[in-house]
């Protein structure tokens, strides 16, 4: 089961729901605001406008040290899981080969006992595999939540005084954004800030 091949992409999708992300109904609301009565620019006395910032999940994934460390940890855990299962499988195959070599020399009682042990081995292997996979999934789920929380907390602090109405997370594969003003790209600020926080001694 390939976990590490998807952990960061899943994390990216989870981060797509990060604080201030525009959902479908919010997009419709934005469209109504844009298509509705025109608002005067801020400071003109004719009303307030809203600002939208964005950050690039692909860049965050590539440069955020904590996410890279999580990926490496997941790879190590998956490798350990695969080695554990491979070792158990080799042990089972050795026992099966011993039964095969004995073949017709086994009595009926021995054959029945071997069949019972074979069924037990299969069940034990399946249960052990499921247990290891659940532990790995739990690790990855906890880390995804931790990554999301770190980003949410940083954005809340970052947005104080900036007053962005929306801060949108996007990636190249799943983006619904067709035009971006780089003036409102906060990716570098986000990456630098998160890495600075991650490097702080505990």
Brief overview:
α1 (7-15) crosses α5. The chain has 202 residues and is mainly alpha-helical.
Characterization of this structure:
This protein is mainly α and 202 residues long. It has one domain. The protein is 64% helix and 5% strand. It has helices at 7-15, 24-35, 57-63, 65-102, 108-158, 187-199; strands at residues 52-56, 166-170. The model is unreliable at 5-10, 12-28 and 36-46 (pLDDT under 50).
Top keywords for this entry?
202 residues, mainly alpha, 6 helices, 2 strands, 5% strand
Write the layout of secondary structure elements.
Blueprint: H1 7-15, H2 24-35, E1 52-56, H3 57-63, H4 65-102, H5 108-158, E2 166-170, H6 187-199
Parallel strand pairs: 1-2
Helix pairs in contact: 1-5, 4-5
Order of strands across the main sheet: 1-2
Distance between the termini: 34 Å
The number of distinct structural domains comes to: 1
Number of discrete helical segments: 6
* Biggest sheet architecture: 2 strands, parallel
Helix proportion range: 55-70%
The shape, in one word, is: rod-shaped
């Amino acid at each position: 089961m390939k976990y590490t091949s998807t952990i960061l992409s899943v994390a990216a999708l989870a981060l797509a729901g990060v604080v201030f992300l525009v959902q479908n109904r919010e997009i419709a609301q934005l469209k109504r605001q844009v298509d509705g009565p025109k608002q005067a620019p801020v400071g003109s006395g004719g009303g307030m406008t809203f600002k939208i910032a964005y950050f690039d999940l692909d860049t965050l994934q590539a440069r955020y040290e904590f996410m890279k460390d999580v990926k490496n940890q997941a790879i190590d855990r998956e490798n350990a899981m695969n080695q554990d299962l491979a070792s158990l499988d080799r042990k089972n195959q050795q026992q099966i080969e011993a039964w095969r070599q004995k073949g017709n020399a086994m009595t009926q009682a021995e054959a029945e006992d071997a069949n019972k042990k074979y069924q037990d081995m299969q069940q034990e292997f399946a249960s052990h595999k499921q247990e290891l996979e659940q532990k790995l999934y739990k690790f990855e789920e906890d880390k995804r939540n931790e990554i999301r929380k770190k980003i949410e907390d940083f954005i809340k602090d970052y947005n104080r005084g900036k007053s962005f109405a929306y801060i949108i997370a996007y990636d190249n594969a799943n983006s619904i954004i067709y035009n971006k003003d780089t003036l409102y790209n906060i990716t570098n600020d986000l990456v630098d800030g998160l890495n600075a926080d991650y490097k702080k001694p505990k």
